[in-house]
Specification:
The chain is mainly beta. It is built from six helices and 52 strands.
Length: 756
């Protein structure tokens, strides 16, 4: 009797599956983080009644113990609900997302999540990047969450290690004020020289900041070179202008030695060393030096070649020396052509847009209303079957290419372009794949997407849609989700409000489920402006001042913000930078919360103020849509996967080999070996000057209810420029940073302020 009962049970299961109709889609972040919120978007389609869905995250921790968090929600047909799960202080382990449905749709589905320990951001600021023996190291650590707001974490550990890794100072169970911890450490007269580290430990997450301890002499003047960064082998005549001025703006008199030599870095057969060309000229704040690089260095024509210009200026009175380096790239052609793809894949049956960008090598757009750009393209290997088009360049040196690939039997798009004597083959664009040859595409219509403003998208499909669902993922979490019903439309526009938690990049997924269960999907990334919701403005009571004068600084930020002020001698920054918190560093930190594939254009490309603020991450299949957005999907529909052939054709100039690797850019204008020299004497003054700090301002202020705070400080005796920057932290508005520097200076007293 056992076998008949098993047969009966199997029959009942089949009948239940046949009666049950409809689909469910559950989208959630791929990454699970401790001490965070985890949001799950649940949608049901083609059902006749609401479905009760329970979603939960659970698993086993490697250190022992289990974790479980779940929520239950009732989802009506063609609606989307977001469920919030509170993730506590869990450690590394194996975790799953599980969903169970009853009533309308009965199902159980699970998938594995990827655990990432990072749930906080710590920004460490030091007053300088390099210290002498005996100096005081001052630092501040900002402990923030993924929303850039002060993180409530309790105590934290902070310690400093020297150049040999020895722990020399420690703060155990330290507390913060509005997310900020301030500390200082006095260096001995004979410390270990080299790279030291500040380590901040927040809930078993480690963050580091490196500073240098070294013997040095601050540079008293700065040397810069003004010269074209690019030239051609046929036109390599170059005039380099050398500038030398003290940090307070006065011209330096002395002698400039200019050396020019080629850099060996390519794979071409050539000698590793060639005798440099050297010229010595007098300088009084400024000097011009002329070279014919190709002729003077006896270079043959290649595709591309790097030439270094080294300048050393020796001050006439003291013999102090200061140097800098400038790189000139020699090219075969004076312009370059680049293909900007909006996606790595095109959707058959839907418009695909790409751009050809024609610029000079310094990034200046080519403006030519007479000579067109010839573009040839095709969906076949047969070069003779290509379609040829001629396009005029826009004033920004751009050509917009719109392709309309047929719906059937298209696998790859080949392109090449020609402008005057420059001809290039571009990398191919492959076709997306669908079992039913059905495709969906979303396009951003808003020109400059910004936080706290609506973003408009246009959704196009190769077949009429009855509805579609979209989700927005920002900083690794589902922020927004909705289902929009339609009346058999192939095109529909919709808007959503961009919030700061979506910035700097919002990942938008759009999809629907066909009658046969196939999930038709598309995704795109949208770069959003306005990731920082706080700000800092710093002003002084006067644009002119002198050493020893009382200076009043007024700081503005969001009301009740906690504001940090830093003011350092510009000579310190000439020696070594990197101690401050920058906007670029903050945005890069926010991107670490993403688990998606990154755009090759580093979030849009900007061309003379015109930015392309979206990029399709490229999805050959529906599965890749969710994978590339950092999401997982649970569904009883078909999420197509495909492993296509990949067509490779490198981007290159037809007549030449591939471009050789470029040498790293030289960032520092002063090396430690070049700043030492005779000390010399200072100019006489009526008042005896004794206050010569390298750090002038290091303060924390409370902005009042009006968002303002004032501080008065005596100007130091150093005749120099001061660079002043600030940050603000607030539980409601989060982190803010001061903008670019501005000058307040007095020529009479040769005293300058830079407000950063």
């Amino acid at each position: 009797m056992v076998i008949p009962r098993l047969v009966l049970l199997g029959v009942l299961c089949v009948v239940e599956g046949a009666v049950q109709t409809g689909f469910y889609t559950i989208v959630a972040p791929r990454v699970l983080r401790p001490n965070s919120e985890y949001h799950v978007a649940i949608t049901t389609q083609k059902t006749s009644q609401p479905t009760t869905v329970t979603v939960g995250v659970g698993g086993n921790q490697h250190g022992g113990g289990t974790f479980q968090a779940s929520q239950t929600v009732t989802v009506s047909p063609y609606t989307t609900h977001i469920v919030k799960l509170e993730i506590g202080d869990l450690g590394p382990g194996t975790y799953n997302l599980t969903a169970r449905g009853i009533n309308g749709l009965e199902f159980i589905n699970t998938t594995t999540l990827h655990y990432v320990h990072k749930s906080h951001s710590v920004f460490i600021q030091t007053d300088k990047a390099v210290y002498k023996p005996g100096h005081k190291v001052q630092f501040r650590a900002l402990i923030l969450n993924a929303h850039l707001k002060p993180s409530v974490t309790g105590a934290l550990d902070v310690y400093i290690t020297d150049g040999k890794g020895n722990r020399v100072k420690q703060w155990s169970r330290a507390l913060t004020t509005k997310g900020v911890f301030s500390g200082e450490f006095q260096l001995s007269q004979s410390p270990v020289l080299g790279d030291w580290n500040i380590t901040v430990v927040v809930m078993d997450q480690y963050f580091y900041k490196t500073f240098q301890v070294a013997e040095y002499v601050l540079p008293k003047f700065e040397v810069t070179i003004d010269a074209p960064a690019h030239a051609t082998f046929k036109d390599s005549h170059l005039v380099a202008t050398v500038y030398a001025k003290y940090t307070y703006g006065k011209a330096v008199k002395g002698e400039a030695t200019v050396t020019v030599y080629p850099t060996y870095y390519s794979g071409l057969l050539q000698p590793i060393f060639q005798n440099p060309v050297r010229k010595v000229v007098p300088i009084d704040g400024k000097a011009n030096v002329e070279f014919d690089i190709t002729k003077d260095l006896q270079l043959g024509e290649e595709y591309e070649r790097s030439v270094q210009i080294d300048v050393t200026v020796e001050e006439a009175l003291t013999g102090r020396r200061q140097n800098t380096t400038f790189e000139v790239m020699l090219h075969k052609y004076k312009y370059k052509m680049e293909l900007i793809k909006t996606s790595e894949y095109f959707k058959p049956g839907l418009k695909y847009t790409a751009f050809v960008k024609l610029t000079y090598h310094d990034g200046t757009p080519v403006q030519d209303m007479n000579n067109p750009v010839t573009v040839r393209y095709g969906y076949t290997f047969d070069h003779n079957a290509y379609t040829e088009e001629k396009h005029k360049l826009s004033k920004d040196g751009m050509v917009t290419l719109n392709f309309y690939p047929p719906l059937e039997n298209q696998t790859v798009l080949w392109m090449e372009a020609e402008y005057l004597d420059l001809k290039e083959w571009f990398s191919t664009v492959s076709a997306s794949v669908s079992p039913s040859n059905t495709f969906l595409q979303a396009v951003v219509k808003t020109e400059h997407p910004t936080v706290n403003q609506d973003v408009e998208l246009e959704v196009n499909s190769t077949e009429p849609m009855k509805y579609f669902t979209y989700q927005v993922i920002g900083r690794g979490d589902v922020i927004m989700a909705n289902t929009i019903k339609l009346a058999d439309k192939k095109t529909h526009n919709f808007r959503f409000l961009a919030t700061y938690v979506m910035a700097p990049v919002a990942h938008v997924m759009v999809y629907y489920v066909k009658e046969d269960g196939e999930v038709v999907a598309n995704a795109l990334d949208i770069e959003l402006e306005g990731a920082l919701q706080n700000f800092v403005n710093i002003t002084t009571n006067s644009e002119e001042t002198q050493p020893g004068t009382d200076v009043e600084l007024t700081v503005e930020a969001k009301p009740n913000s906690y504001v940090g002020i830093l003011g350092v001698d510009q000579s310190v920054l000439l020696l070594k930078s990197g101690s401050d918190i920058t906007k670029d560093a903050v945005l890069e930190e926010l991107r670490l919360y993403d688990s998606n594939l990154q755009t090759p254009y580093h979030y849009g490309f900007n061309f003379r103020g015109n930015a392309l603020n979206y990029w399709w991450p490229g999805s050959a299949t529906a599965r890749e849509v969710f994978d590339s957005s950092g999401a997982v999907i649970l569904t009883n529909g078909l999420v197509h996967e495909h492993f296509p052939w990949v067509y490779y054709r490198s981007v290159h100039v037809m007549e030449e080999a591939a471009v050789p690797n470029m040498p790293p850019a030289i960032e520092e204008t002063a090396a430690f070996g070049s700043v030492a020299g005779a000390t010399g004497s200072t100019e006489p003054a009526i008042r005896v000057r004794r206050n010569f700090p390298e750090t002038w301002l290091w303060h924390m202020l409370e902005a009042g209810f009006d968002g303002k705070a004032t501080i008065r400080k005596f100007a130091p005796d150093t005749i120099t420029s001061w660079v002043i920057s600030g940050f603000s932290v607030d539980p409601l508005f989060g982190l803010g940073l001061s903008e670019a520097p501005r000058k307040v200076w007095d020529e009479t007293h040769s005293f300058i302020y830079h407000l950063k």
